Amino acid sequence: MAKSPEYDTQNGKQHPFHLVDPSIWPMLTSFAAGLTAVGGVMYMHDVEWNGFNIGVKGLIAGFVLLLLCMFMWWKDVINESIVQKAHTAIAKIGMRYGMMLFIISEVMFFVAFFWAFFSASLFPVDGIWPPEGIHTIPAFDLPLMMTMILLLSGCAVTWAHHAVLEGKQKELQQGLAVSVFLGIIFLCFQVYEYGHATFGITDGIYGSTFYMATGFHGFHVLVGTIFLAVCYFRSLKGHFTKKSHFGFEAAAWYWHFVDVVWLFLYVSVYWWGGGDAGAVAH
């Protein structure tokens, strides 16, 4: 029986599975992530050496290295998909399962922060939540606007997804451009919010849980925005078709996950846990 042309690549592969070539990028990415984490911890503890805040330098160096690794690693993956045609239908099934498991792990990551917040708010030490002296951010002020921005960006991603399924490349590019723009606007508003908050991460359990939960969500928005920006530039090169667009599909899944987490944060932390109607006695 004749072999399927999909599997008869130039290197003589006679199976539908994708065996990746050796790559240095996973190891370098791990090193960059570790450097970023260590730099962040030292920055929070104001670690200095010869008058220099080495935490800031480590944080910046690690993040720049992370971006470099992301660029080079994704470049190799794109080459596997577009040039080598190695992403067969069977290989894409594995990619989908991998992305699903990754998002599930991210869900459990945020469960820890929600658990800490609800544990502290449902059983407050002083019987009052939010704690005395904490002036929370009104839920129906800037956070509501940020919620609308993020939901609108999710709509733009869905628009782009329908466009690629219908072969409308121009609308795909427009939808991705809008979603990236709104992601950047959301991040700008979050930075503004942090700059004008009256409490810090060291101001008790409320400050700790608030900044850890919303801060890590903001980091995920940053990653998702970069993910979508890569998809936008790939769409300009015509990499996505009706039958082959998993790179964009994975970005869309991730972005919708970010949307859902923010909805839980808004309702739980800003609205219910923020005590807009005043401190709640327990």
What does this structure look like?
This protein is 69% helix and 3% strand. The chain has helices at 25-44, 54-82, 89-122, 142-165, 169-196, 204-236, 246-272, and strands at 48-49, 52-53, 128-129, 280-281. The strands form two sheets. Strands 1-2 form a two-stranded antiparallel ribbon. The chain has a two-stranded antiparallel ribbon with strand order 3-4. Helix 1 (25-44) runs antiparallel to helix 2 and helix 4 runs antiparallel to helix 5 (169-196).
Offer a quick outline of the entry.
The chain is mostly helical. 69% of the residues lie in helices and 3% in strands.
Key terms:
282 residues, mainly alpha, two-stranded antiparallel ribbon, 7 helices, globular
Instruction: Write the H/E string, N to C.
Output: HEEHHEHHHHE
Instruction: Provide the β-strand percentage band.
Output: under 5%
Oligomerization state: single chain
User: What's the overall geometry?
Assistant: globular
What is the gyration radius calculated from CA atoms?
22 Å
Largest sheet: 2 strands, antiparallel
Task: Tell me the number of strands.
Answer: 4
Structural class: mainly alpha
For the residues shown, what is the average pLDDT? 88
Distance between the termini: 74 Å
Residue stretches low in confidence (pLDDT < 50, at least 5 long) are: 1-5, 277-282
Widest sheet: strand ordering:
1-2
Helical coverage, percent range: 55-70%
